[in-house]
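Researcher: We're teaching a course module on how sequence relates to structure. For the next exercise, students receive a sequence and then see the predicted structure as tokens, so they can try to spot secondary structure elements on their own. Here is the exercise chain.
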Amino acid sequence: MKHFFEGWAGLLLPGWTELSVAGYTRVPVTFSPLGGGTETRPDVDLVFPRPQAALPVCAGIGLFTSSDGSDTPVVYWQLSRWEHAGKVEAVLMAQPEVTLLLNRNISWQDGAAIGRTAAGGTVFVNQGVTLIDGIENVE
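Model: And here is the predicted structure for the students to work with:
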């Protein structure tokens, strides 16, 4: 089966930098295209495991091609709200926060807004990403 995206998800701080606290890791994720390729969401619940340190306020989620490193997210979006600051067991992302409603009628250019989440957050694309038949292609 072709996926919209297969890689890792990570939490982003305000300013679109990735979270960096003890015990935090990116989590593997697969997004499948739905609704003719304009809607996509994870195949399973997106859950970030319990970190060792308290979590700060996070602003978004990014999709990455590697499990760790200094790479930037290929697609990222704003969270409508964040209720997980402080010590938490794990972070389960609500379905509307990870359901992406994408605009396939525009050119996906670096930094462009390409859609919204079902919760209302704006979805952005980074460089080197195109959409082919509802499947994301990272160059």
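Model: If you want an answer key for the exercise: The CA atoms of residues 24 and 107 lie 34 Å apart. The radius of gyration is 14 Å.
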